[in-house]
Amino acid sequence: SRHGEYAQGETECNIPQQVATGSGLVITTAKNNWTCGDFNINGSVRHTPSAWPYITGDVQWTTFKFTYGTVEIRAKFPPQATSLWPATWLLGANCQLTNIYTADTGYYTCPAYGNTGYAEIDMTECYGGGWCQFHVANPGFGIGHGCDATYNVDTNWHVFTTVWTSTSIKQYMDGVLEATCNQGIVGPM
Q1: Are 25 and 32 in contact (CB under 8 A)?
Q2: At 100, is the secondary structure helix, strand, or coil?
Q3: Contact by Cβ (8 Å): 79, 155
Q4: SS3 for 186?
Q5: What is the rounded CA–CA span in Å between residue 34 and residue 102?
Q6: Which of 75, 113, 120, 176 has its CA 20 to 30 Å from the CA of residue 97?
Q7: What number is the average pLDDT over the span 11-19?
Q8: Is 179 helix (H, G, I), strand (E, B) or coil?
């Protein structure tokens, strides 16, 4: 349980009740006033809890790490008019320790966005004018080489597949190649 990323102006509380498991993993977002903040690793309050208009879920592995491989996610995204910010993404393993306490980067072992050691693969990130996009941050976005691309996603169920090798990251939707990032990322996700 914690707030989303303060640095990006997120307005949600990530709470366990919005994550369900069974025949798959389901994360839901709802308009619901909730009070949350975030914490330092020692358990002290980092940002004082306050009320936020949305609740959602977040899945954080604390020990699972990998370098290269294929990640496949079956997901359904809301319409663009909702003004939500749904995403499926990977953050560098060096952020595993801190991300369960705070979503802000630049804290303890998690480098700040744009700094050496920061790595992020946004497999499907939907917000703003481009609905949706694929991005690779190594250590920042806008690195070119096909690492920043927009592709259309509707409100139906789709299978999103990310294939990560030492030389590239390819993003597929329903088996169709949407983007190829011709740059490797050093370090585990």
Answers
A1: no
A2: coil
A3: yes
A4: coil
A5: 17
A6: 75
A7: 95
A8: strand
The DSSP line for 21-83 is: ESSSEEE--EEEEEEEEEE-TTS-EEEEEEEEEEEE-----SS---SSEEEEEEEE---GGG-
From CA 155, how far away is CA 76, in angstroms rounded? 6
Q: How far is Cα 98 from Cα 33, in angstroms, rounded to an integer?
A: 25
Output the pTM of the full model: 0.90
Which tens digits make up the pLDDT trace of 102-125?
A: 999 999 999 999 999 999 999 999
Q: Identify the bridge partners of residue 13 per DSSP, sorted by sequence position.
A: 3, 55
pLDDT value of position 23: 81
Q: How confident is the model at residue 170 (pLDDT cuts 50, 70, 90)?
A: very high
Stretch 170-189: mean pLDDT, rounded? 90
Nearest to 75 by CA among 183, 154, 16: 154
Question: DSSP letter at 170?
Answer: E
**Strand-pair partners of 56:** 14
CA nearest 71: which of 136, 162, 147, 158? Answer: 162
